[in-house]
């Protein structure tokens, strides 16, 4: 046994000291809230924000904003595949309006939007993340359109649910470092997993809203049929019947005036 003064070390070991603690003093607890903990806190806040918006466009913009901030990327983009090898939606972050205008002015037709070649096409084909220090060094790189800002380091992460591709996150030019690291990739892949659920949730909400609108339209149409049937059974005058039909049609389509002839 020992007559020393004992205390529990933060890692669980029992430490012994021959010096008694001073009156009123408290054991010193080392600071263990690391930078990794801070980034996980940021990821947690970012994923919560994804589910605070039910509109699909709002969710996509929150995803790209969160990815850019978590990775400290200069540029960020998010693409939604069209199922035909291209992209139906492409959102960018980081380029100025002037830079976007210069790219568009250099194109002979259509807006600035990738068509699924290069690294974007490679991610669509494999469904795997890509992390490289220099975009031009990748064998599938096809370069950039004229007047496009120069970009070097790249991190691309797919967004998928149950094996179905839902989108892709593209990050370029890590600020403060030459390239994105494994921790950046891990965080963005975790974000992508939550992003998949948020995208599916927004699409489901849109489908419900559209279904409700369609149901309301069908109810109005049914009401019109019923009212016309009621009017037809209660009068034999064509003019009265046509007047009822016109009133119901004006109501159904929200028109100001109408005419039957």
Automatic annotation (TrEMBL):
Compositionally biased region (Polar residues): 16-25
The record places domain GAF at: 55-209
Per the record, which residues fall in region Disordered?
Answer: 1-37
Coiled-coil annotated residue ranges, if any? none
List the InterPro entries.
Answer: GAF (IPR003018), GAF-like_dom_sf (IPR029016)
Write down the Pfam families for this protein, in alphabetical order.
GAF_2
* Protein's name in the database: GAF domain-containing protein
Source species: marine sediment metagenome
